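If your schedule permits, I should be very grateful for your opinion on a structural question. Kindly check, if you would, that the fold set down in the tokens agrees with what the sequence suggests. Thank you for your consideration; the sequence and its tokens are set out here:
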Amino acid sequence: MTSKPDQQETSAWLKKLDRATAAHDKTRIALEEVITDARSAGVPLMTIAKHTPFSREWARKIADRIDAERAARAAAAN
């Protein structure tokens, strides 16, 4: 059985997890933007799916969501 780390070690691990999570979020957001832009440029969803960790359906859902968010931001700006 794994022993429970002391408070200082736990704190250090939680800081590492927080940094990794923040980096993952930034990278995921960037990937979702590129997926959306690629679809808008006419790249087929099956091709996008072959080059990302997402299925064709998830790529479509992501692109639809990003497009809706962009449209909402544009409408709010006007």
About this structure: DSSP finds three helices and no strands in the chain. The chain has a mean pLDDT of 96. Residues 7-40 form the longest helix (34 residues). Residues 2 and 22 are 27 Å apart (CA to CA).
